[in-house]
Amino acid sequence: MQASPEVIRSISGILRENDWRVTAFVRDAELVGLAPTATQPLGFAVDLGTTKIAAYLVDLESGAELASAGAPNPQIGYGEDVISRLNFVYRNPEGGATLAGKVHDTLNEVLGNLVVQAGVTRTQVVEACIVGNTAMTHLLLQLPVAQLAKAPYVAAINEALEVRAIALGLEMAPGATVYIPPCIGGFVGADHVAMILGCDLDQSPKIALGVDIGTNTEIALRVPGTQFMTSVSCASGPAFEGAHISEGMRAAAGAIEKVRITSQGLELTTINDEPPVGLCGSGIIDLVAELHRTGLINSRGRFQKASEAVRATENSLEFQLVNAQNSGTGREIVIRQEDINEIQLAKGAIHAGLEILLAITGTAPEAVEEVIIAGAFGSFLNVENAIAMGLFPDLPQAVYRQVGNAAAIGAKWILISKTARQRAQVIQKNTRYNELTTYPKFNRAFALGMLFPEKNETVQNR
């Protein structure tokens, strides 16, 4: 049996402290660590998003989730999108170490919060699985990124990787390992593999689309009877997470999460029924869909000046949701023309990605039987309103299913199961990535995707 120097240095003290009766944590033929008798081995599963980090503490024997926590990705201060971060690394000799260090510190802090929640110790955590898009895992591991920042956007390595937790600054068992699942290519990374696994898209008996909505939205198409799935990645940006929106915010207490415009006025629902303080992603989708349904914005996303509900300011047009007296911040909450424009950019990218994916695979829209919506934002999305505002192209036969953070679910499966790791390898090998920007009609599809449908019958008839 093998053991790292870090493990060897810990053995003598632990044995003596526990009267020579201990639990040994063994990974294959390697001793990972020692602990008091009957101590359970734990794992650390992480979905490393461009904007947010979601982390989970898992019992490796039962698979039970013991604790969960989240944090903003600290790299956001160096660029909200992945290209900005890659360029920062390219232009600064110490940029790679800086961005990696920020994430390492945050992951270690989040892990500390998890073990406190669960009432356990860090030395019980013997394995980690971290998933993220290709850029995020490259930055995490300080892999070369110059080739990833420009066409044809090639990863330094696509295969699964195992690294010592200590190399990433993670305070876990002395011999703990971090497993990074394989990536597919470009910006379709280990999180996409985990999403496909987590929602069983690779085993679906239906012609199905998997859409993981985030700052980078990844989409996969499964056609039963064919060997390969096909994937694309859309730079949808962080607008659906509240960024670049005047009163946008993350999903927290007081965030407006549901909106309906009636003949009696506005009906708003906030998280925890707190006084409104801003708009989170689901509320933004509802509001924009309602503004279009009621004719307050046209198909090009422009506010209609003739409406009494729309008012002009010095630099823009805007619609008031909450006056200053009724808000939780003491200031009014509005949505402005530039906010609508940001949503159009995000929806245009996703709409174009879906449309082009169907085109390059020769899949008719009416042939799609299921659309699986993944991601934390997708969990709270009003699908009816998303369809009405044209976030998705017309898929008349499709049934929509929301599955939550499927990438995190997949990460937890991969953490605890060798079979899941083998399945992830098969998913990676059997998925073909297509770069959208090389498609000749991408710009036209993107521009048309920014438009709102001329008819909103789905929302009007609810």
Structure, described:
With 462 residues, the protein is an alpha/beta fold. The chain folds into 2 domains: 41-180, 2-Layer Sandwich (Nucleotidyltransferase, domain 5); 187-462, no CATH class. The protein is built from 13 helices and 21 strands. The strands form 5 sheets. The chain has a 6-stranded mixed sheet with strand order 6-5-4-7-9-8, with helices on both faces. A 6-stranded mixed sheet has the order 20-19-10-11-12-21, with helices on both faces. The radius of gyration is 24 Å and the shape is globular. The termini are far apart. Mean pLDDT is 93; it is low at 456-462.
Give the domain tally.
2
N-to-C span: 65 Å
Q: Return the average pLDDT rounded to an integer.
A: 93
Strand order of the largest sheet: 6-5-4-7-9-8
Instruction: Count up the helices.
Output: 13
**Rg, alpha carbons:** 24 Å
Coarse shape: globular
Estimate percent helicity. 25-40%
Biggest β-sheet strands, sense, barrel: 6 strands, mixed
Q: What are the key terms here?
A:
alpha/beta; Nucleotidyltransferase, domain 5; 2 domains; 13 helices; 21 strands; 32% helix; disordered C terminus
